[in-house]
């Protein structure tokens, strides 16, 4: 078990190497400096030894030499300190930058099937906490472990050479005091991990409460949450107090633990000096070696645990790089002008490989026509869109774009042929103009404004103080649902893809906003081939064909009038869903008599 965890920690760390390779000069420099710094520390001890002995014996020449060597050692330590920090700072910053590039590039290429099933927090925590932990490790503990191991080893060898009995005595004392500290420390770890857990819980609760502040306020949940929060705070307080009590005890004990080796050492060492078995300089050098040993041995477990934690974090992070990316094969086939823009033939699909959410679906969408997909919630309408956009691969049957199988298209080419307008409007941090251009190169402001005009949003944008350069997003302008929708419609208009995949909004907008959005959609639909998930009666009535999905199967298809006359699934949907959503104005426009008549009992 232990071997396998060591192996996996080693394996995870090995995966950092490719990121360090381009900066190997700085890595090697840092390693050399680390060893040289440890050697310099030991050299300094030697110099102190000479300094003390020469002062006591009155050897001026040796004393001056020792002072000169000490100054040289201090100067070397100064230069190495600077160069070491600079070197590790440099390679860790560059390696982390490259790592972030690699990860974000890989995340971009991951299939939607992967990202849809993961919490967004998972990606961000891997990219922030994970990468930061690696950066800290590279910047610090990476070489500290080497430093201590090297310095401790040399110290022990020199101590054994100087006086092996005194060395053994020191080792036994250090081992005993180490065990004592560990014994006192252990419960402290437990309390501090409990404290971390309760703190994490309070943070999560606060985040949840703030995230859902509208619901919290409107349902009067404040008092309930307040009580829960208070209980958590009491737990945090209890754990903090327990830690403080232990820390106070540990502080007192640590004075003894730190002094004990020296007391016993000087007792025995002094005896050796009196009996001329050890020089005073050697005694002081010994004391300094013990100091190095104690500080190294107390630091190493921490650094080792940082190493293991970082290895765990790195493992978790690198798992992302092992995930298969979207396919990159296929090209841009030469399309036939007469072929249907889109055709499904006997397509079946399941998300989990067991339950089919589409079953033997076949339909065709001729160029320039509009097909409406209707069906109850969960019937598979959005899944059809996801297959067309190549977010998921269908299991059976064929999907063709302009007569060519989707698998012969590269995903980029297929997605260029499609403009997707979904209910979820995604605006990224940037200006309104950037959001409309949506990464399209070489787009002039006049084209952006033309698309915005068609989308009924130009006037609103111009009324903003910074117009098209207004920033949207976290710290940008707040936009209403309708305004966001119209910006995403402008984006689709500018994209000018031959096929429009439109998921009509179900959420109600106020009537003005609704009219503006609807006008924009109608303009966009003109002269395009449209597959629309329809929620509005006017859309289904005007569609060239309506496809009714039920539990992933096509149960009916035809025009509005044909389907109504069949008295089947569409008729039921029509009565339950579409008619209810219509406003009185729309019903009047359709010529329906909506005057209220008193009920007459015959
Ligand atoms: N990522 C997913 N993983 C697993 N199952 C999914 C996933 N997305 C959708 N489903 C399931 O597939 C079925 C069809 O879902 P889909 O979203 O296509 O329905 P829909 O007709 O668009 O529904 P709505 O009108 O509510 O948007 C549902 O049973 C749904 O639970």
From TrEMBL:
Membrane-spanning intervals of the chain: 23-46, 66-87, 142-160, 166-184, 249-274
UniProt-annotated location(s): Cell membrane
CDD domains, alphabetized: ABC_6TM_exporters (cd07346)
One Pfam family from the record: ABC_membrane
Residue ranges the record marks as coiled coil: none
One of the record's GO cellular component terms: plasma membrane
Domain ABC transmembrane type-1: 27-309
Domain called ABC transporter: residue spans: 342-576
Keywords associated with the record: ATP-binding, Membrane, Nucleotide-binding, Transmembrane, Transmembrane helix, Transport
Membrane-related topology note: Multi-pass membrane protein
InterPro entries registered for this protein in UniProt: AAA+_ATPase, ABC1_TM_dom, ABC1_TM_sf, ABC_transporter-like_ATP-bd, ABC_transporter-like_CS, P-loop_NTPase, Type_1_exporter
Molecular function, one GO term: ATP binding
Cross-referenced PROSITE patterns: ABC_TM1F, ABC_TRANSPORTER_1, ABC_TRANSPORTER_2
Record protein name field: ABC transporter ATP-binding protein
């Amino acid at each position: 078990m232990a071997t396998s965890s060591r192996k996996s920690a080693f394996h995870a760390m090995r995966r950092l190497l490719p990121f360090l390779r381009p900066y190997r000069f700085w890595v090697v420099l840092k390693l050399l400096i680390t060893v040289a710094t440890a050697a310099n520390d030991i050299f300094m001890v030697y110099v102190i030894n000479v300094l003390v002995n020469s002062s006591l014996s009155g050897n001026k020449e040796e004393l001056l030499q020792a002072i000169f060597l000490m100054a040289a050692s201090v100067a070397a330590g100064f230069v190495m300190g600077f160069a070491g920090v600079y070197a590790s700072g440099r390679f860790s910053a560059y390696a982390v930058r490259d790592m972030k590039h690699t990860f974000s590039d890989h995340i971009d290429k991951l299939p939607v099937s992967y990202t849809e099933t993961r919490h967004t927090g998972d990606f961000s925590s891997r990219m922030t906490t994970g990468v930061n932990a690696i950066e800290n490790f590279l910047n610090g503990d990476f070489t500290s472990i080497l430093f201590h191991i090297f310095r401790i080893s040399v110290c022990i060898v020199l101590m054994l050479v100087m006086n092996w009995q005194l060395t053994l005595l020191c080792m036994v004392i250090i081992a005993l005091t180490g065990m004592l500290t560990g014994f006192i420390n252990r419960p402290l770890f437990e309390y501090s991990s409990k404290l971390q857990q309760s703190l994490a819980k309070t943070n999560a609760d606060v985040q949840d409460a703030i995230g859902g502040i509208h619901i919290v306020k409107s349902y009067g949940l404040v008092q309930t949450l307040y009580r829960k929060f208070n209980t958590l705070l009491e737990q945090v307080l209890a754990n903090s107090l327990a830690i403080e009590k232990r820390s106070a005890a540990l502080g007192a004990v640590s004075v003894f633990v730190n002094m004990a080796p020296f007391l016993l050492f000087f007792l025995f060492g002094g005896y050796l000096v009196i009996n001329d078995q050890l020089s005073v300089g050697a005694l002081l050098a010994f004391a300094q070696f013990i100091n190095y040993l104690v500080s190294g041995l107390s630091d190493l477990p921490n650094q080792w645990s940082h190493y293991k934690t970082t290895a765990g974090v790195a493992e978790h992070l690198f798992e992302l790089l092992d995930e298969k990316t979207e396919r990159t094969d296929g090209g841009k086939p030469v399309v036939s002008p007469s072929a249907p823009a889109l055709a499904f033939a006997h397509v079946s699909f399941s998300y989990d490989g067991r339950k089919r959410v589409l079953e033997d679906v076949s339909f065709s969408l001729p160029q320039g026509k509009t097909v409406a997909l209707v069906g109850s919630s969960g019937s598979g309408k959005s899944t059809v869109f996801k297959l067309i956009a190549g977010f998921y691969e269908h299991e059976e049957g064929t999907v063709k774009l302009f007569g060519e199988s989707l698998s012969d298209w590269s995903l980029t080419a297929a997605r260029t042929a499609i403009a997707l307008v979904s209910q979820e409007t995604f605006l990224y941090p940037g200006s309104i103009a950037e959001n409309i251009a949506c990464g399209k190169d070489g787009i002039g402001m006049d084209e952006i404004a033309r698309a915005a005009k068609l989308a009924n949003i130009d006037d609103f944008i111009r009324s903003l103080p910074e117009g098209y350069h207004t920033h949207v997003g976290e710290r940008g302008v707040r936009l209403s649902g309708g305004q966001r929708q119209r910006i995403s419609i402008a984006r689709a208009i500018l994209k000018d893809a031959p096929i429009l995949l439109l998921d009509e909004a179900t959420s109600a907008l106020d009537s003005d906003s609704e009219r503006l959005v609807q006008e924009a959609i109608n303009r966009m639909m003109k002269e395009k081939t449209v597959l629309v998930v329809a929620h509005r009666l006017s859309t289904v009535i005007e569609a060239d064909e309506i496809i009714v999905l039920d539990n992933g199967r096509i149960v009916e298809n035809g025009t509005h009038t044909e389907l109504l006359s069949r008295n089947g699934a569409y008729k039921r949907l029509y009565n339950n869903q579409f008619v209810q959503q219509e406003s009185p104005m729309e019903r009047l426009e359709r010529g329906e008599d909506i005057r209220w008549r008193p009920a007459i009992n015959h």
